[in-house]
Amino acid sequence: TRQALAAVTAIRSALPDLLVGAGTVLSAVDAKACKDAGAQFLVTPASTPQLLEAMIATGLPFAPGVATPSEIAMAYEYGLTEVKFFPAHLSGGIEMLKALRGVFQQVRFCPTGGISQHNLADFLALPNVFVAGGSWLTPANLVKTQQWGQISELASAASAIARQLKTAA
After folding, report:
1. Pairwise pLDDT comparison (157 vs 1), residue with the higher score
2. If 0-12 CB within 10 Å is exposed, 13-18 middle and 19+ buried, where does residue 49 land?
3. SS3 of 166, please?
């Protein structure tokens, strides 16, 4: 949205050391607009050859959205080994990611969709998961009411879960 592009630009201006990305990139036009707004990485919810080519053309790091072995294979054919697995929960979740590891050993996943603080550790414990994300970190009601402290607490809790797993490894 225009608001999202304006937010990317504003965040980059206010916090130049912060790594800022843009998600839900659906087209070549979106990819260019996000790059022009200052996004430093991009994420898509899906993959098509045209979208992958547009993302590559930006020169930015990106995670294409995949949900099926065919989509993963297509991304891999483009040389992409880090992908967004979406919607993770509805696409088989942890069991699907375990099964995919046997076939796509070089591919690492960022599951989103159905991830929460209650199952985050289970996803992050998988060897083929490099990061996980979800809207549970920024609930719409907290954003709307500008409850930044509560959002920070959710982010801190997620970071603690990740640190705990890293320490245990």
Report:
1. 157
2. exposed
3. helix
What residue type is 111 in one-letter code?
P
Reduce the DSSP state of residue 46 to 3 states and report it: coil
Q: Terminus-to-terminus CA distance in the chain, angstroms?
A: 40
Give Cα separations from 138 to 24, 89, 121, 168 (angstroms). Answer: 16, 18, 18, 27
Domains of the chain as residue ranges with CATH: 2-134 (3.20.20.70)
Average pLDDT of the segment spanning 12-26: 97
| pTM metric for this prediction | 0.92
CB 131 within 8 A of CB 110: yes
CA distances 27 to 46, 50, 63, 126, Å, are: 10, 8, 14, 31
Predicted confidence at residue 169, as pLDDT, reads: 67
pLDDT in tens, 92-132: 999 999 999 999 999 999 999 999 999 999 999 999 999 99
